[in-house]
Amino acid sequence: MPDRNHQRPVPGRIRPPIGETYIIKQLLDIGAQTLLIPMVDSKEVAENLVKAVSYPPRGVRGVGAALARASRFNRIPDYLQTANDEICLLLQIESRAGLAALDEIASIDGVDGIFIGPADLAADMGHLGKPGAPEVQKEVEKALKRIQSHGKAAGILTADLSLARRYVDLGATFVAIGNDVTLFANATTRLIEEFNRTVSSQGSASSGSVY
To answer: A Gene Ontology CC term for this entry (predicted)?
Structure first.
């Protein structure tokens, strides 16, 4: 992925479907270093996720990675001793329960950043399909400030570029403005529209059919 300033590649973030310990272990063992875990709504869940990404005694991550891709198949010296410090754990807050526990979650050592999921948050607040609703935006803005007050990175997703700018101005340090599915859908829509315009403009010059 490119960054917005220099178009340089930056490490990818992997978002598993659920924050189960065994799934997290598999992702870390293949070399993932930044994980974005969805639907975190309590301090207990967040603490368990910190344990899942950490080797003992801090956590419960299995040491099989010493023979896995993450350690270049045991070619990285002291991998087990340094791995904990190289993992970036980002947690997604997407519900009213998550907002209620936000300060407790953000205060946990080992949580590197918190990402607000506005679509699911809006749905949970009774504004299904309306993440831009004033009530939702009020809570989002308060949440971004609360996250930063704990010294953690604050992030959010939005396809609205004016909102993206607003979030950056509020101190968000990572703002997702698209994803692979929407980028692909938008690109194919533009391609089809361009093709149809081309065919229409040439229609009078040809009586053939295009398949």
So the answer is: cytoplasm
